[in-house]
Amino acid sequence: MGVGTEKRPAAKMKLVRLFAFCLCLAAIASLAEPLRLDPDNPHYFLFRGQSTILVGSSEHYSSVLNLDFNYIRYLDTIKADGLNVTRVFTGTYHERPGKFAPDFDFQIVDNALAPKPESFLPPWPRTNQPGAVDGQNKFDLTKWNPAYFKRLTDFVREAGKRGIVVEVSLFCPYYSDYFWEVSPFNARNNVNGVGNLSNRLDALSLKDSKLVAAQDAMVRKIVRELHQFDNVYYEICNEPYLVAVPIEWQAHIAATIADAESSMHTAHLIAQEIALYGGKAGQLVPQASLLTFHLARNPDGVSSNYSLGKAIGYNESGNDGVTDAPYRIQSWEFLMAGGAMVDLLDYSFTVGHEDGTFTVPPTQPGGGSAALRHQLAILRSFIGGLSLVTMTPSATVIKAGVPEKASAYTLAHAGKAYAIYLAHGRPLRESEVISNYFVDQQPHKVTLTLDLPAGTYKVIWVNTRTGALDKQETITSHGDADTLITSPEYSEDIALKITRTSEP
After folding, report:
1. What percentage of the chain exceeds 90 in pLDDT?
2. By mean pLDDT, which of 97-106, 297-306, 359-368, 438-447 is the weakest?
3. How many whole angstroms separate alpha carbon 487 and alpha carbon 322?
4. How many alpha carbons lie under 13 Å from residue 233 in its C-beta half-sphere?
5. What pLDDT does residue 265 have?
6. Among the listed residues 322, 321, 324, 326, the one whose alpha carbon sits nearest the alpha carbon of residue 373
7. What structural domains does the chain harbor?
8. How confident is the model at residue 27 (pLDDT cuts 50, 70, 90)?
9. 34, 52, 384, 415: least CB-packed within 10 angstroms?
10. 214: Cβ–Cβ under 8 A, 6 or more apart, which residues?
C-alpha cells in the first residue's frame, strides 16, 4: 500500500512536468512565428498569438543607416507613446545634407535620412580608395560591413523587446540624379564597376546583370541576418510608382526574398507598395501579402482592394500641412474602413530629438508631434479592443444622419458589436501632389439612424483627441424599427462603440 501510494503521485508529477514542458514549447513556437496574416481574418495580422493592427509614427527611416541617430531613445519613445510599428531604409538609398535636391526640393529641415557623409552606414564597407561623390572612400560591394549588420540586428532585436514591428524597406527609387550620385550602387562610389548606368531609372530594373546580382546578394544577406526575428516584414520598394519601377524587377526581388527564406524554414510577410492616395491595385507580385499606400487622404485603397483578402496599409503620410488633425482623421478613416496598418511619417524625430520633441516648421512636407502620437495610441486602443477576426466593413448599418460633407465608416460584427467613426475633414485637391486639407472645427451634434437587430446595447462615445468617454448610454432596438442615437457635442471627429448586452 505504501509503495503504491508513493508511485502514483510520482507518475502524476512526471505527467504534470511533461505537460508544462509541452506548453512551454508551444509558447516558444508561438513567439518565434513571424508576423503573418491572421488565418481567421487575413485583413488583419497575427503577432505573438494575438490578432493585431499596426499603428506607428515613424522617424524618417534613418534608424539604421544614420550613425548619429540614437535608436534606443527613439524606440523607447514610440513604445511609451503606445505605438507598435516603425519603418527603416536599408542604405541602398539615402538623401544628402542641406538642400533636399536642386530639382526636387521638399525643404526638409534636420532631415535624419540625410546623414553626414562620415555618419552614413550602408551594408558595404568603405575601402582605402578615395573618390566617392560624398568625399569619402569608395565601397566594396563584394564585402559586408559588420558594423551595419550589428546595428541592423540590434535595432530589430530592441524593437522586438518593446513589441514593435519593423518594416524593412529594401529599396527606394532615385528621384533625381542628385540622389543617384551618392548611392553605393553607382559605379562612381564603388570599386567593383557596378552600376555604370547612363540612366538612373535603370538602377531598379533587370537591365544590368552585375547590379542585379549585387542587389540580390544584399537581399539574401539581410534576410539571412534577420530570419530569427518575429517582428520583421519586408517591403520590396518604396514608391515604385513614382519612377515606374518595372513590375518584373519587383517580382524578382520578392522571389529572391522567398527563395532565401525557403532554406531557413521561415516566411516573413512581403509588402508591395501600390500608389499614392488609393485606387485599385494593378499587377501584384505573387508573394505580396500586404498592400501599402502613401498619402492616403481617403481610404479608397482599402475599399478598392478589400476583396483581394490581403492586409492593406497606409505607410507614409505628408503634404497636408503640419497640424495633427488631417493625419489623425486619415488614420482613423483608413483603419475604420478595414485597413490593417497606419504608419505616419513623423518629422518631430531628428538627430538630437529622438524623443520626438523637434518643433516641426510650417515649411516641412508633413507633420508629427507627441500629441499626434497620443491620438494614434487612442486609435490603436479603440480598434485593438474589437474582436478583429469577426469585424468587417459595413455600409448598411448607418441609414441616415451623417451630415453633409462629413464621412462615416463602420466596422461590424452583425448583431454583436459595431464601431463607427464620424469625421468632418476632407482633401480639397486630392489629385494633386500638394494638397490643402480642410478640417471643420465647428461644434457638431448628430443623431444617427441605425439598422440594429433587436436587443439591448451599450453605446460609448469616444473623444479621438483625449480618449475620454464623452457619453455612455444603454439603448434598446426592437428590430422592426429604426434605432436612433444622439452624439454628445464634438468637433472635427468622434468614434463610438455599440455592443449588444442582451438578446430581445
Report:
1. 86
2. 97-106
3. 29
4. 27
5. 86
6. 324
7. 37-389 (3.20.20.80), 394-502 (2.60.40)
8. very low
9. 415
10. 141, 185, 192, 194, 195
Contact 372, 57 (CB under 8 A): yes
pTM score, whole prediction: 0.92
Which element (helix H / strand E) includes 455?
strand 455-462
pLDDT range class, residue 431, cuts 50, 70, 90: low
pLDDT one-digit tens code per residue, 448-494 = 999 999 999 999 999 999 999 999 999 999 987 799 999 999 999 99
Q: What's at 245, amino acid-wise?
A: V
3-class secondary structure per residue, 6-17: HHHHHHHHHHHH
Q: Which string of DSSP letters, residue by residue, matches 151-210? A: HHHHHHHHHHHTT-EEEEEEE----SHHHHTT-TTSGGGBTT-TT--S-GGGTTSSS-HH
Rg value, the chain, Cα? 25
Which one, of 422, 245, 235, 266, lies nearest residue 343 by Cα?
235
Which candidate, 396, 494, 400, 497, places its Cα nearest to that of 447? 400
From the number of C-beta atoms within 10 Å of its C-beta (0-12, 13-18, 19+), residue 29 rates as exposed
pLDDT in tens, 79-123: 999 999 999 999 999 999 876 666 666 779 999 999 999 999 999
256 CB contacts (<8 Å, ≥6 apart)?
A: 216, 219, 220
**E-only strand ranges, 230-279:** 232-237, 270-276
CA dist., res. 351 & res. 445, Å (int): 43
What pLDDT was estimated at residue 480? Answer: 77
Q: 470: which 3 cell numbers?
A: 464623452
CB neighbour list of residue 228: distance below 8 Å, 6 or more residues apart: 32, 266
> Three-state SS for 478?
coil
